[in-house]
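In this section we turn from sequence analysis to structure. A common task in structural bioinformatics is to predict how a protein folds when a small molecule is present, because the ligand can shape the pocket around it. The inputs are simple: the amino acid sequence and a SMILES string for the ligand, here zinc ion. Study the lines below before reading on.
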Amino acid sequence: MTGFSRRHFLSLTGSAAAAALSGGANAAMGPNDKFDLVIKGGDVLDPSQSLRGKRDIGIRWGVIEAIENEIPAARASKTIDASGKLVTPGLIDLHCHVYPYGSAIGIPADELVQFQGTTTVVSAGDAGVNNLAALRRFIVAQTRARMFAFLHIANNGLSAFPVAELYNIDNAQVEACAMALAENPDFLIGVKVRMSENVIYKHGLEPLKRGIQACEMCGWPAKMMVHIGGVETGALMSDILNLLRPGDVLTHAYSGAPNNAGAFTNIVQDGRLLPAALAAKQRGVIFDVGHGGGSFDFTVAEVAIPGGCTPDTISSDIHVFSGNSPSMPYLPNVMSKFMAMGFTLEQVVAMATSAPAKIINRAPKIGTLQLGAPGDVAILDVVEGPVTFVDTRNNKRDGKVLLKPVQTVINGVPFGRPYQSPFAVR
Ligand SMILES: [Zn+2]
């Protein structure tokens, strides 16, 4: 298989994508037809079309059909009153752990919706080639939230957690990984590898090299998602950065975690940003937050970001352990934390909607409220008032805003009231 085309993906992405693509629902809707759902009076913020303002959103047959100043009540079968709330495209979490029953750290994606406002989630290496089919057949098939995945280069994924998956390098099987990528181009985005010393021990660059090799063998442009934090040596950190290709994702970019000996070997060392990190950023490597329970340090971010290594995507790295940690890294909390660091509301929403949508590049029109897009919407409270944020190394910073999910709609169907009848697809 040599070629890769968007058309090829679209032929594989299923009915929801087809509905969104056709735009046919739009054309078929007459002036007296009712919307299935109108989200009324919210402060709509959609960075994908530079839209901010009070709007009503009309959804019919799972698709966004109208964004207007006022949609008359008579045209709504059901209404959600969003007045005083922020309304954004459904949030997208590029790094989380949503393979329950298949690993020791997974959370059911639908249980995250009320805490995260996420309509699309990406499993970050929960599955390897040996347990990928079970993720698709038994988890994705019964989940309302959209799911995609990075496939772990280790054939057992994170199923052995907390036992490290790559102390034995034999678990990283290039051809098997490439085969799974070739067979699942509609679902997989690329390959995950965790490069920390407490995961790969002394295997140096070898796990990353095998991941890149699998990406390059599979026949389509698969991306790497590379987890850092406490790599074996400071020099290895630069070597990892130098291997990353444009479009590859560096996750836990602002980690301050130490290596096995307690040394700090991250992208900021001795208070200085590594030149290799800036070079990676400049050639198009994606910097992803991946906050998690041990992977975000204000003191690293506060050097790296002014130094040029700004985040491209905000993700949670939420799992059963990080969700119980003091930072509570649910996606809207992490977005709020970046507002405390000086980013605007528009910027943090873009980093959790349009930016990760571009990286996923599978279902058309996710991360946007454009006409014809799937009816994926997050409704949030913007709670103003003093709030203290803590990172994963117990540094604290004060902020002024906390984003709190109120309600989420996926494919036009709300979680909770008002209920849809019949409760059909998704
Ligand atoms: Zn993770």
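The pocket of zinc ion is lined by residues 95, 97, 124, 290, 292, 317 (CB under 6 Å). As an exercise, try to locate the residues that line the zinc ion site and compare them with your own expectations.
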